[in-house]
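Hey, I'm writing a tutorial for new members on how sequence and structure tokens pair up, and I'd like a real worked example in the thread rather than a made-up one. If someone can provide the structure for the chain below, I'll link this post from the tutorial.
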Amino acid sequence: MSDDTVAGDRLPSRDRRRFPDISSRAYEHPADRSALVALRKLSGFDTVFKALSGLLPERSLRLLFLSDSVRVSERQFPHLHTMLLDACHILDLPKVPPMYVTQDPQPNAMCVGLDEPVLVLTTGLVELLDEEEMRAVVGHEVGHALSGHAVYRTILLFLTNVAVKVAWIPLGNIAVMAIVTALREWFRKSELSADRAGLLVGQDPQASLRGLMKIAGGNHLHEMNVDAFLAQAEEYEAGGDLRDSVLKIMNLLPRSHPFAVVRAAELKRWSESRDFQRIMDGHYPRRTEDKDTSVSDSFRQSAGHYAESVRSSKDPLMGLVRDIAGGAGDLGSKLRDTFTGRGGGGPKGPSDGPSDEPGKKGAP
């Protein structure tokens, strides 16, 4: 496949809606935009970004894939080549990025590169997913490319794998680890955006959800059920008490991706939303309008998203946030009682039993 291939060179392999001139703003999750703004404002990020942008081995990265992976083309993995052309045509990506398949039993995919994006699929992923599930994954990675995520992803990979061990990194290891933590937080949110791009490309919500389920549970589709998997997501999001909410956060921090059940639930909600239907009807932000976009409007959209998330969330921690916003009294006692296993509603003596507060599960 030539690097000069353009996305309009062929039509999609089956009838799918195309989105000419679509802006990544159409599918970007509000949390993705907010996390990226927060990352860019982090003290020392500009210094590290500028230093690494000139030092990262871009050519070495490309030569590594060229020498030790299989480049997708008309003659190698032709079905993936067709999917890639389809995805770039549907999202109107001006230039088709090179894509490689690399030997790795772990199902994974990534979009990396500083000057131009490179897409990489592992053999574990290619062997796991069927055609429509894989189409959503290829669309997911093309969405990363259209959103410009490859640069930050490359810096994250470099910092986590190499730079924290190198003495010359500006600002020292503590500051670098703060940047790595912020990059991970942004990247987890960017995955939610790319999942939406994958759905716009595949235009098959069940295939997108099946793919996430199989990434979580393996290639045993006859043993799994999408509705039951989504019920798991609801249980995860609503279950437990404040201690469980904190444990969820601690479990998530070292991960590069959100949990699969959370991604599935987020994608299902978006697939049923008015925003998704408007895009499918041809009403979406255009790239030619990006320069006129108001930053304050983006902030308002993100703030509105978070406010609605807090209002609708069943998570106990979000319930506490609502209590704080509503001016609920004696929150210190409520927190202390929850984390010490005492009942709610105020301080109690050492002999008091578990909470019998309405709607709240007792301590395990």
